Each structure stands twice: as C-alpha cells, then as structure tokens.
Structures
1.
Amino acid sequence: MTRADPFTPEESYYECLECGSRTLTEDHIGSCPACGGEVRNIGVPRE
C-alpha cells in the first residue's frame, strides 16, 4: 500500500536546469530569474 505524504510546503524550492541556480519562493516560477532557463521544483520527491 502506498501512502501520500500530507506535508505541503508553504514555499517551493526551484533549481535551474541550465545554470544550476536555486530559488526559494512562495509563488510558482516558470523560468530561472538568473538566466531565463527552465526550472524544476526540487522541493517535491521524484520517483
């Protein structure tokens, strides 16, 4: 049986796939503020 983690962070931690910079924010961001590259939310588990 798989259980979902009920934890929901108030802030999201994003990492840029191009330059590697990381950003902590309360809002969703679509691109890296440093270089404009694609970002992913690293505050959630990946399986």
2.
Amino acid sequence: MTMNSWPKKNALVLTLLLALSACQSAQPERQGTVQPQPGAVQVAVNQPPATQLSALAPQDARQWVWWRGVNLAGADFGADVLPGVLGVHYTYPNPGEVDYFAGKGMNIIRFPVLWERLQRSLYADLDAGEMQRVDLFIRQATGRGLQVILDPHNYARYRGELIGSQQVPHAAFANFWWRLADRYKGNDHVIFGLMNEPHDMPTQQWVDAANSAVAAIRAAGAGNLILVPGNRWTGAWTWNKADSFGESNARAMLKIKDPNNWLWYEAHQYMDLNGEGGKQDCVSETIGSERLRPFTDWLRANGKKGFLGEFDSGLNAQCDRALNDMVRHMEDNADVWRGWTYWAAGPWWQPGTSLEPNNGQDARQIAILQPYLPQPAGP
C-alpha cells in the first residue's frame, strides 16, 4: 500500500480492524515479537532492550519507572498562525538541549508538534519540509539513546474542529497516524502519543477516534508503543469523573483496543488549586500523590500501565516537597507507572515552572528530580 492509496473514507478497513481487536481477550504486557493472530499484522513491539533496563535499575534492586524526562516544547507554538514562520511563530529544540537533559540522566523526551504543520490539509501527504525538521530532532535525540514521544499537541482538534465531527472525520485522524506510523515504524525509540489533552467533547467520540488511530498504526505495520490519553484534559484527578460529556475515563478507556496489546494510558496532573499548571502555588505538600491516586488505583485494578505526560512545580519550599511527593508516588508504584515527562523546557521558555536552564544555571526543580534520574549515558 502506498501513502497515496489510503482512501478518504476507508471506514470498512477500520471497522474490520476494530472488530478484530475487540474480539481478542486482554493479555499480559508482552515482550519480544507478538505472536500472530488470525488476520493481524505481525510486528515486533519495542520494549526497552535488556541493556537499557539494567542501566535504569537502582542499586537497591527496587523497581523503578522505566523512563523519566521532559517535554521539549516550541514546535507546537503559534497555533493561531498556521502554518506560521519558523523562528518567528514557532521553533524546534536544539541539540544543546538534548545534550543537557541527557547529561542530567533523563532518558525520554516528549516532543509536542502541531498536526496542521505536519499535514497541511486532511488526507494529504505529510509536509516534506516540516518532516525534515521532525526527523532531524528525532535523530538527535535517539542518537543519544533517548526515547521520543511524538505528541500532536492539538487537543483532539484540527484547525479548531473536533475529531469525529463532519469537518474532521475519524478517518482523517486515522490517515494522519497511518502516515506517521509508516514513517517511523522502523525506529523503536519513537513512541506514538496519540493526542494531547482531548477535552470538551463526548468521551465516546474520543474513544472512537483513539481506536481508529490505533487500528491505522497497526495496519501500517508499526509495532511502536502507543500512549492513549483520556478525555477531560486527561487529568489523573478526574479519571473517575462522569459528566455531561459522558462516562468517566475509568470506564471509557477500557474500550480502547490494540491487537498487539502494546499501549499505555497517559495522564496529566498539575498541583495548583485549579490543576491548570504554570502556577507558583502547590495546594499542599502531598497534593501530587493525592491527585495521582485515582489513576494509580485504576491502573492496578485493571492490569494497565500509565505514563504521566505533564506536570510542573513552582519555585518555593512547599512546591519542592510536593514535587518530590508526586515523583516518589510514581516510583513507589512502579508496577503500574512506566514513566514521566515534566512540563516543560525549550529554547523559548523562561524561568518559572520550566526546567530550561537560565544563564548556565539549573532550574530549581532539577535538584528535586535528580535523585530519581539514572546515571547519564555517555555522548
């Protein structure tokens, strides 16, 4: 199948793929090559190599989360000026930032981008110039041994229209991910984060969108790990909440189907009063673990694995303790938590809640995170 052979309304193929995955019973998290199922695409899943896992193992042999890192934002800027001008409306992380955070011992980067820049119109080829820049960053990061989460930072929208609407059908979202999966299926360091923070939409509509994307990724022959966020800004503290948009994430996310059984669930959580992030206040010293607890309990009760894609902390003693409490909670529950990426850093970020160094000085939060980071790998 060529890139241009994907029809706009390939609903039948997606329906068959979803039906196949729905018929398969839940299985434990797998390692190695997936055993072929009738009609399924046989692909290799990208678990971290044994050498990488051993490098992350703490001296006390306690289980630690696999991946700890940062969001390097900038390519997602200028969403109101599309496609925008590089260097004016948006930017890309530079190799020095990759080296800096790898040197601190971080082993994963969440890489926010905009769907509209990568694919200038629905169903079209990926933009050649933009993808060259994406490819370059991924080569720089994976060349240092880091994992990269490719994160369409679109809030389940394309040019302001919801995925699953008449303007942006599920097939369009599937087409986008089929193209990305086809491009990166040979790179087991690339993780597919389906979408940043779906919100203000029917929860079932997001479930249908996510399942269409998962089916398209596997149809492309990609075995890469997939991260699936929930609705309602994918908040850990609201995971059990049902509202006018439908059932809770706790119920709805159980409908996500992957024939390869190689996906994790992504949550975000901030510690200020409204849970918005970018603030200097933290509600209490234990607010991090308290807000993560509903998601942690859901993961364990349902045999799932989780990833914290965004969190931050202010510049004060209470936030220092709250940040430590939040990360400690994930480490103490590493049987279900697989990793985290702090929000955020990048060349245009200023001191505050950011991890971006300032005039050669580490951000305050680095000192809190450092004990949880593995020893840095060599260049």
3.
Amino acid sequence: MNEHAHHRPRTRRWLFGCFAVIFIIVAMAIGLGGYIALVPTEDSTDALRAKGYPTTLEELEEWYLEPPPGENAAEYYVQAGILLNRSNFEELGALPLFGDGELPTLGIPDSDEMQATIAQFLEHEALAFQLIDEASQFETSRDPTVQVMGGSSVMELFATFRGQRLRTHFYNSLGDTDSTLEQFATLAHMARSVGQTPVPDGLMMVRSSIDFAIAALEDIVNQDELSPQQLELVERVLEQLLPGDRLVRDILATRCRTLALIDSSQSFSFLHGYARKEFLNAADAHFAVAEVGLPGQLDEFRGLIGKKYSWMDTFESLYANGFRLSVAHFYEAETRLNVAKAAIAIQKLRLSGAEIPERFEELEETVREDWPIDPFSGRPLGYNRSGDGFVVYGVGRNFEDDGGQWDQGLDTVFRVLR
C-alpha cells in the first residue's frame, strides 16, 4: 500500500510532463503555422502596394482624396436622403416607390390621382430636391464615410434615388421633354457620384443607382419622340455612368476592410494566419482578373466561378463567393448600360427614316459594328422585333438566353414599344 502511494506522485509528475511537452509542441506548431501562412500574404500585399494601390484602411482613406470643402456631391445627396427618410408618407399611401402605389407599366399614362399624389410629394420635399439639384453641379463625390471607422449611408442614398426617380417620372408624365431630360441627367449624376465612392461591396448600390437611371430613360423613350440632339445628349450621359475601373476599386475597398477585420481578431495565430491567407488568395485572384478589364476578363472570371475547392480551402471558397457577388453586380450594371446604349442607337437609326428590322443581322452595318457585348455571355446583346417596337436584352446572371423575357425577370431588357 505504501509502495503504491510512493509511486503516485512520480506518476503525476510524468503525466504533467507529458501534457507540458504536448502543449509546447502544439503551441510551436500553431505559431509556426501562423508564420508560414503569413509570409506569402505579406508578399502579396507588398506587390499590390508596389503598384500604388492601398492595402490598409488608412491607405485607402488617403488614396481617395476628399473633394474641396463644399464641393462634395455625396454630402448633399446624403442630406437629401436623410430628409426623405424622416418624412411621414402615411397620408400619401398611394405614392409609388415610397408608399403602396406602383408606377404604371410602359406606355400607360399616370392617372390624375397619381399625378396629384406625386406633385404633393414633390412640394412637401422641396428642400430635399433643392439639395439634389445643388449636388448635381459638382463633378467630385465621396461618400462621407471614414473607412477606418466603418459605416455607410446606403439607406440615405437609396432614398435619394427613389425620390429623384419619382420626380423624373412626374416630369415625363407631364410631357415636358426638356425638363424630363434634365431630371434624367440629374439621376445619372447621382449614379455616377456613387460610382466614385470607395465603399466595400459598393457595387450593389452602383447597380441599383444605374437601374433607377435606366428605368427612367426607358420611360422617357416610350413617352416622347426624342430628337437626334436629345438622343446624343442621352448617349453622352450613358458613357459617363459607370467608370471602367469600378470593379477594381470595389475589390480593393473590400480587401482593405475585410483584412482589417481579420487582423483585429488574431488571438489564435494559426487560424488568423490561415484565414488571412485564404482571404487574400480569393481577393488577389479576383483583383488580377478585374485589372484585365472587359471583354478580356470574361473567360478568366468564368474559370474562377467554376473553380473547385477542396475542404482545405473552405475559407477561400467562402471569401470567393463574396467577390463573385461584386463581379455579378458590376456585370449587371454594365449590361443595363449596354442595352440602353444599343436601344438609343436604334432610335437614332429610326429617326433617319430606317425601318426596324426583324432580326439583328438586318440592322445597318454601322449599328452592328458598334453593337455592345453582353458581359455575361461575351457575345453581342440579343435583339428582337416586338410589335411596332423592339427589345434589346442581355442574358443576365443565369447565363441563359431566355429570348428577352422581361416579365419574368430572366433577362436584362430595354423595351421600346413604338
């Protein structure tokens, strides 16, 4: 009995020593694993910085210079959005976009009641629209968001777009073409303003803003017979709507923000290093392709979309899904612009006395030579004759040509009914 008691402390010391050794080995493995994972990510970051791109939120803040005081369009748009968001529209329940009302479909005029409701809204929100008009005079814009602190004013900007879209529609319903085009130009300026802002995942707002602008243009084209000069004005506005490097900027901003979040919680060094490496693998792969630009990047992005990940790359797969969403928003915005550009080109052709052909191949060569590409397919946009008008469409995110089915939301469509 005493002999067993004598060996018991020795056994405990032996077990304690084993646990200590195992703990030291695991700790060293974790530390070494974290270090090994961090080395290639630092090389990646250094390479990006060597190109003059920001790699931290502080660098991103400096990279996007603030407009001169009093000349930041975004500040005015955000102030207008705050006013619109604070308003009580219960008395205007039939108000479209803000209330329960719906804008009529293309080719159907507003009822007198609808016009009166919108007119009441515009009068009540006169200060908000004054701010919108003042903002449209400035060329520079930057969302008043401090990148290091985070936060955004997406809801205010979204309210501003809804309000201006409604105002554009109202002027159009009154038949004042020149005033309507001025409102469209303001709406387009707002979309361009959002395109200048370095907010992570900002392409969702860019796509939404362009949706508002092109929907307004579709209304205008179906309401009024625009002159050649007015169509040329529309073309100039469309050319300025989406900066070609907007996808690059979005990926950069998302890279800086997400990396800051990962680095803020590095208590477990191996997981921290692993998550950092997996994220930067996804970010840098998508950034490299985004730099190529359209249309050359199409096949490479398709390769990224179809990439198969092993269980060891679970984090990279999750991060890649986020970047794919940014790519999808960018392509959708590009498609909306391209179908509008193609439709305006056909309208100019009609004004010259040409007939609308049944098939794309019968369009005049001058139009076919400059016919836009569908970002989702890499092929020319679709075209259909439809009654007295026509439809231009892109295949959309499902990559399927559904023949321009606008009513089911399968394709990205611009319709001219007459």
4.
Amino acid sequence: MKLFRLNKTNLNEVEQIPFKLERDIQNLVEVNTESVFNLKFIQSELSVDKYRIDTYVLMRRTTPL
C-alpha cells in the first residue's frame, strides 16, 4: 500500500524502506503500541502451553464498568 505525505494541497509519495527482519517490525510495534493503538504493552515472546504469542498487549479501559 502506498503512503503519502500531505504538503499543503499536494500529496507526495513516501519512499518505502523494507525491514530486514520480522523482529525489527515487532520491536517497532511493541515500542509504539500505546501511542499508535492505545494498547498497553505487556510482554514479548510469551509462551502459553504449546502456543507462542509474539506480542501480548491489553486494552486500556476508557470507561468504568
């Protein structure tokens, strides 16, 4: 998907720079989960029984129950 930067009334395509490793993307997402997704980062590479979770996050509650 192409991304564009708005410059007043013009759109300029943003250059794509690929990640070398999947772990690089995972690190970027984990460091920014709160600001981008409004989620609280809990743990990376979590194992539960025979399953593995790359990134474990929790939703922030915005309204009381």
